[in-house]
Amino acid sequence: MFNRLWRYVSAALFASLVIGRAAHAITPEAAPVTIPHGTLVDRQPLDADHGLAEAGEQFRIRYSSIDGVDGIEAREDTGAVFLPRGPTPPGGWPVVLWAHGTVGIASACAPSLNVRSPRDIQYLDTWLSLGFAVVSPDYAGLGSQGLHHYLNSRAEAYSVLDSLLAARSVFPLQNRVVLVGQSQGAHAAFAAAGYQPQYAPDVKVIATVLTGTPYFNAQTSAGMLFASQPDPGAPDPKIPYAMYIFLSAADRDPSLQAAKYFSPQALPVLNEARTLCIDTLTDHSTSAGLNAGNSMQPGIQKLLDRQSASMRYPTLRINHPVFIGMGSEDIDVPLIMQQAFARDVTKAGTTTLVREYEGLNHDATLNPSLRDSVPFLLRLMATEKRAHAQ
Q1: Could you tell me if 184 and 151 are in contact, meaning their C-beta atoms sit under 8 angstroms apart?
Q2: How big, in percent rounded to 5, are the helix, strand and coil portions of the chain?
């Protein structure tokens, strides 16, 4: 009897929610003030082998957010929080809000569920050693339900900002935040910087720090993206990214036919891309010898055009300073794309510090960039501190 009653009540409750939503239509613009988000749902100690050496405490968190793909659905996402060693300073720790690079689109690829790369461990340990807490979202669909929609600006931004809102509700964190991202994470961090004034207006962002930043605008073409490959006949590390973009599009429109965009040689690897994380997928793509010439159909430009709107930033004018680092030998995110981004962001009126690292590729740029991004940030914090003291 209880079960029958519960089913009746559940059905009635669901119907009321549906009717209520239909009667009071929620738009993406209204959702942030209509749907609760940025609340901590759960925290658990992070597995030791998934942690960072410089962390005094580290946790895996689950928090409420809004699905940035459609902009109107409530969801829950996951991430990690790392607190520095030593006593908590008065007012809490300043925060590095770390947006990670490409890991894949399957839930199991979430950084909080895996051992981080030596490169990322070194980078994040540096920030911890400088006295910054690190809040590290996984992004929607990574560690949580649904497929991760790769390079969707709004979805990334909502996940990033809500991880911070949730973390600061229970951890000793200052309202002094640095948005930091590499590769896809640079895309996520800059998107979060653009959405923050409306989505999380009380968050005080001191600066945004980016390396290897993707940039999509009306002039972006598939030809330009793949032209950066020094040897057109060699395997191209960007092929897996194109596969993730297609699968994200197909998740919203199952009628899309992969054969219109990828060659028969590439289709077996594409079929694996939904479940394989980036390192394994790249190995399979490389073993198959995939590059633009033998993998892409002419329709790939239509796919890029189709997805471009969701991958663009909401604005290029940011109301705080932005550090932009890039490697001269980067082919994962073509240097020409990053240079266009730096130029357009500066032209839009954003205060920028741009540094190009000669001879360094996509991965190798991250840690050397600290020699410029750390002084950049510390100067800003010192200036802010003097201003408050006056």
Answers
A1: yes
A2: 45, 20, 40
Closest-CA residue to 50 (of 138, 1, 112): 112
User: CA 384 from chain center: how many Å?
Assistant: 27
198-215 pLDDT, tens per residue?
A: 999 999 999 999 999 999
Report the Cα–Cα distance between both ends of the chain, in Å, rounded: 69
Report the distance separating Cα 267 and Cα 249, nearest Å: 16
Compute CA 10 distance to the chain's CA centroid, rounded to the nearest angstrom: 35
Q: What angle do CA 128, 201, 377 make, to 5 degrees?
A: 35
Closest CA to 246 of 201, 306, 187: 306
Per-residue pLDDT reduced to its tens digit, 132-147 = 999 999 999 999 999 9
- Separation between Cα atoms, residue 150 and residue 238, nearest integer Å: 13
Q: Is 286 exposed, middle or buried (0-12, 13-18, 19+ CB in 10 A)?
A: middle
CB 365 within 8 A of CB 325: yes
Residue 82, strand partner residues: 58, 134
Backbone angles phi, psi at 175, to 5 degrees: -90, 55
Kindly list the distances between the CA atom of residue 30 and the CA atoms of 36, 201, 300, 385, in Å, as whole numbers in the listed order.
12, 15, 34, 36
pTM of the full predicted structure?
0.92
CA dihedral 366, 371, 373, 374 (to 10 degrees): 120
Of 319, 52, 309, 322, the C-alpha closest to 211 is 322
The alpha carbon torsion through 239, 245, 248, 252 (nearest 10 deg) reads: -130
In angstroms, the CA 193 to CA 33 distance is 18
- Helix (H) or strand (E) holding 281, with range, is helix 278-287
Convert 59-104 into a string of H (helix), E (strand) and C (coil): EEEEEEEEECCCCCEEEEEEEEEEEECCCCCCCCEEEEEEECCCCC
**Residue 203 CB-half CA count within 13 A:** 32
Distance, in Å, from the CA atom of 106 to the CA atom of 275, rounded to the nearest integer, reads 5
- What is the band of 389 on the pLDDT scale with cuts at 50, 70, 90? low
